[in-house]
Amino acid sequence: ENGVADPFDESTLDAALVAAACGGHVSSLELLLAQEPPPQASAIKESFLRACGAGQCDTARRLLDAGAPLEARDRSRWTGLILGALCGANDLCEMLLERGAEINAADSNKWTAIIWASDRQQVSTVAFFIERGAIIQGAMHWARDPAIIEMLTARGGYKGDQTKLGIEDGVVFLLADKNRGRHVDERQ
């Protein structure tokens, strides 16, 4: 009315929410989530994915509490878990798995979180996913770090692995596994 823009119009609020999420600013995020009208679901989802990509566990947790979908995906079909694996954010990955994230969720190229962690040479993150039973097939092909190669080899991984994998609803599974689903334990 007086020619001054509302500082919290929808686009400004969305941008501020993303910035707070990426920067790990939980208190700022709380203030933004309390705005009236509240941020739209699409902004909460985008902020969640951005927080995961920045390895920000606390802001990602808060955005999940605010309604972000746990298995939200970006345009590349990356989940929060894949984004956390890319940057080696084990605390974030642990929180997402505790909340029920699918450990073997695959992106549009059928890459899972452990494959991305292997490709990005995130040694502790590869170990994290191995300990939690992630399907390792495919990770060895992209492994360059000697410690990752050693871990995957110890679990039966090898270059040129021809294990047949399936994908259903964006989740990778071993075709030989009749009980496909969450957290397949390959040690059996």
UniProtKB/TrEMBL annotation:
- The source's domain of life comes to Eukaryota
Q: Which InterPro entries match?
A: Ankyrin_rpt (IPR002110), Ankyrin_rpt-contain_sf (IPR036770)
Decide whether keyword Repeat is in the record. Answer: yes
Question: Which UniProt keywords are given for this protein, alphabetically ordered?
Answer: ANK repeat, Repeat
ANK repeats: from-to residues: 76-108
Q: What is this protein called?
A: Uncharacterized protein
